[in-house]
């Protein structure tokens, strides 16, 4: 008689793997340890994942979806640049695994860092470039600055803040929030202020008219 399936087996394995990667590092994590942490037989791990590297890839993909969902929950589906940047960097700072991935932290991700090619960085950069270009086409961002330069500036600022939190810190929550807000205000300088609505213009005119 076949064994009954473990409820949420895949998610339990992903949860266990993420905890162990952060506690021990990817290189020190073994499949047997993941199975034990999840309370699942070792053989069941291979029913879900081809091996250790496949498991890590799944953990990182889930973390990326988690960040996107968190940002969308905070700012909606069509945020401005400063709101999107503020929400994204806050989410990154709260996610140790993605911070390690963003900084290529060998202590956490081990040999995985050496297998990542430059295309990953290029794709991430091009995604931001396309997003900025789309906002410029809509008229919500100023058009006299290169989308590539905006994307490069934002990425550099993000890496700098994540690195500072590790090299100078850990920084206090107040310091981190202050830095995030400062960077968001810098991003806001690229935004185009929406025109006043007809009602607002009329109200302003009425208020300034002589009695």
Structure description:
By secondary structure, the protein is an all-alpha fold. It folds into 2 domains: 1-63, Arc Repressor Mutant, subunit A (Orthogonal Bundle), CATH 1.10.10.60; 80-192, Tetracycline Repressor, domain 2 (Orthogonal Bundle), CATH 1.10.357. It has 12 helices and no strands. It is elongated. The protein starts with 8 loop residues before the first helix and ends with a helix. Residues 198-211 have low confidence and may be disordered.
Comma- or semicolon-separated keywords:
single chain; 211 residues; mainly alpha; Arc Repressor Mutant, subunit A; Tetracycline Repressor, domain 2; 2 domains; 12 helices; disordered C terminus
């Amino acid at each position: 008689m076949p064994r009954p399936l473990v409820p949420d087996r895949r998610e339990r394995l992903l949860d266990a793997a993420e905890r162990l990667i952060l506690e021990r590092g990817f290189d020190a994590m073994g499949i047997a340890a993941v199975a034990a942490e999840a309370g699942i037989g070792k053989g069941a791990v291979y029913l879900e994942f081809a091996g250790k590297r496949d498991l890590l890839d799944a953990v990182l993909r889930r973390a990326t979806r988690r960040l996107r969902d968190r940002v969308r929950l905070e700012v909606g589906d069509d945020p401005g640049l400063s709101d999107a940047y503020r929400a994204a960097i806050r989410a990154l700072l709260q996610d140790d695994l993605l911070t390690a991935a963003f900084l290529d932290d060998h202590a956490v991700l081990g040999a995985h860092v050496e297998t990542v090619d430059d295309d990953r960085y290029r794709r991430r950069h091009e995604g931001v470039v396309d997003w900025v270009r789309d906002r410029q086409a809509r008229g919500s961002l100023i058009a006299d600055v290169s989308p590539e330069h905006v994307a490069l500036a934002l990425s550099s600022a993000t890496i700098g803040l994540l690195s500072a939190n590790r090299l100078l810190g850990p920084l206090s929550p107040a310091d981190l929030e202050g830095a995030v807000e400062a960077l968001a205000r810098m991003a806001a300088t690229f935004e185009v202020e929406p025109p006043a609505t007809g009602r607002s213009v009329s109200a302003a005119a009425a208020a300034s008219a002589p009695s």
